[in-house]
Amino acid sequence: MGGRDLARNMGNILQYCLQMRSSKRCRAILFLIFLGAISYTIYSSLPNSVQEKQMWSYSAVLLNSTKSWQTEKFRLVYFHINMWIVLFFLILMIVLGPKIFFHIFKCTQEKNSPSKSEVPHNHKTCWLVEKFHSLNAIERIWYTCLLLITLFVVVYIILTRMYISTVEQRLYPAFMVAPYRVYTWRADKFKSLFSYDGVWFAPQNQCSCPLENGESIYDLESSYYPNDRESAKERRTAAFKQHLKRLESTSQPLLIAEPNSPLSYPVQGVEVMPLHTILIPGLGVHGIQRNHYIVSLHVSTGVLNTLAEVPQDVVEGQGGKQMNISISNPEVLNFILTTITYTSTVYTISSVDLVRFEFESHTAIFPIKIRHPEMLKLYDHGKGKDINSLVTITIKTFFRYHKLRPLIKSIRTFYPNITIIVADDNENPEKIEDPHLEQYFMPFAKGWFAGRNLAVSQVTTKYFLWVDDDFLFTEKTKIENFITVLEESDLDVVGGVVDDGRFTFKLLFEKGNDEEGDCLHWRPGAFHPLEKFPNCVVTSVVTNFFLARTDQARRVGFDPKHARVAHPEFFIDGLGILKVGSCTDVIIQHQSHAPSQNKTLAEFEKKYLKFRIPADDVHHFRRREHFFKNRLKCFSRIELSHKPLH
């Protein structure tokens, strides 16, 4: 229904009410309209979704408001109800006002008529006037007060509506761009700007994992026994504070440049090695004429100096944390500023010092980063790019020698000389004979990630290829394609395809607060295609078939506490460190999962599954690790529907 139709229908209803003889029916219709309007206002104003709650919470954060979204929301509900009450009174005045005045006029005319027979007495018309004249003095005062109170309530509602409208203006700030009024913080803008793949990313000092769109939601704190939860939270808080303390020197505060400042200074890019000295570039004072100039600079951890030969009364504080320059010649002043040096006096690997540059009421603050460069680790793969000098294949095996041997045979079909490293924690180890294979034995059932750590620790090549012990190489298993991607992109890990299914997931990190922790959201798919490689995408998690840069993978490591079931944990621990991709043109095959007809092999498979299929305590352990080690509050997950790649 359009606006014109609504107005036309409202007009028809009012006209019908005016023409009706029964005022009761008219009042009933108007009262029902009034109730419907209020009901619709409450329904439309109440929060309809988790995202709307988050939008209101975000508005409060932006405006530094301590009020919750519920408080602000219901204040606006109150505003809308008051608006409809005022509208209802206006309708009553329009509909009943003329009739009341007509009654009073008719009765007055009847009362003042010289001949009462000329104007027949109408009790239905004059009851209001007669009623008022029949009242005694006290009753008249009482009804007059009641009328004044009613008028006061109406005026109060109107004033309240004007006040509440200021709340709406504060929550939805507006500015005038003649001749238009432009609003911000609207719901549709919020949803499009601060959401990604159904996850709300607005900075709101909290995060959540709402049960929407069929996700699996894991409240990680509940993985602890009730009696252990408070103790675990206290230990996690203490560990987090210790972590923040270590990062204090590397944090960079928000710096706002002063408008129309006469000071020139470097905004970013000033870097010095620990205990080294640099010239601070770009310092100057411009566009202001003074008889005398006084400029000061201040640092926190280093010291300041100048290379200019000037008297001490011109430059005070050389070799200290504060330097003052007092001079009348602006050209000499700017020359001195070009010779200011900063010396790092504290040995640190990575930290930030803030320089405060002041002239009169103008102040500029800029960072100097103190950073020791990382020592390079380059791999010499010889004169030619032989794949055998670039890649090592790593495997972890357990109770499945009958799977491992066919895998090695398939590898040798396509890569006869490539190095293979096997981490073996079988109960009864068997030696694998191969001239280019290294087999490392571990204590029985030491674990999945412990075996990965051992295998990767022995890699001496630039890259390693991870495969499970039940895979098979085929003519589509082209490691060279993986190498090309890593050599010509900034990816650290690139995964392939197992059989005909692609396994790619995005990990969406949502910042929480210091008390409750952060939230992680697991979503199927990829972020975007990888530039220059049409068969590849950028994602967060790939399958157990991937090529990785050895040094970057070692930075993350494989947590050996995950003994039975683990794989996403490596990529979760690598968030912010590893850049991950996936390509569809490198495919490996799974061996058959059909039960073996051989009784001995069937027994091995049975033992393997006993360890492979996790019990409930394993799942609880993984969630406790996410809660404590990764400091996560909750974890939401949407599973991938495995579809063939066609």
Number-wise, the strands total 29
In one word, what is the shape? flat
Number of helices: 17
Structural class: alpha+beta
Largest sheet: 10 strands, mixed
Residue ranges: pLDDT <50 for 5 or more in a row?
18-22, 42-70, 116-125, 170-184, 642-646
**Rg, Cα atoms, Å:** 39 Å
Distance between the termini: 47 Å
Strand content: 15-25%
Oligomeric status of the shown chains? single chain
- Round the mean pLDDT to the nearest integer and report it: 78
Helix content: 25-40%
Q: Can you tag this structure with a few keywords?
A:
646 residues, alpha+beta, six-stranded mixed β-sheet, 17 helices, 22% strand, flat, disordered C terminus
What does this 3D model show about the protein?
The chain has 646 residues and is of the alpha+beta class. Helix 4 (69-111) runs antiparallel to helix 6. Residues 18-22, 42-70, 116-125, 170-184 and 642-646 have low confidence and may be disordered.
In short, what is this structure?
With 646 residues, this protein is of the alpha+beta class. It has 17 helices and 29 strands.
How is this fold's topology laid out?
Blueprint: H1 3-19, H2 23-45, H3 50-62, H4 69-111, H5 123-134, H6 137-171, E1 174-177, E2 180-183, H7 187-194, E3 195-196, E4 199-200, E5 216-219, H8 226-247, E6 263-264, E7 271-272, E8 277-279, E9 284-285, E10 293-298, E11 303-306, E12 315-316, E13 322-327, H9 330-337, E14 340-343, E15 350-359, E16 362-371, H10 387-390, E17 391-397, H11 401-414, E18 419-424, E19 437-441, H12 448-457, E20 463-466, E21 471-472, H13 479-487, E22 493-498, E23 505-513, E24 517-524, E25 528-530, E26 533-539, E27 546-549, H14 550-556, H15 568-573, E28 580-590, H16 599-612, H17 616-628, E29 632-637
Parallel strand pairs: 7-16, 17-18, 17-20, 18-19, 22-28, 24-29
Antiparallel strand pairs: 1-2, 3-4, 5-29, 6-9, 8-14, 10-13, 10-15, 11-14, 12-13, 15-16, 20-27, 21-28, 22-27, 23-24, 25-26, 26-28
Helix pairs in contact: 1-2, 2-4, 3-4, 4-5, 4-6
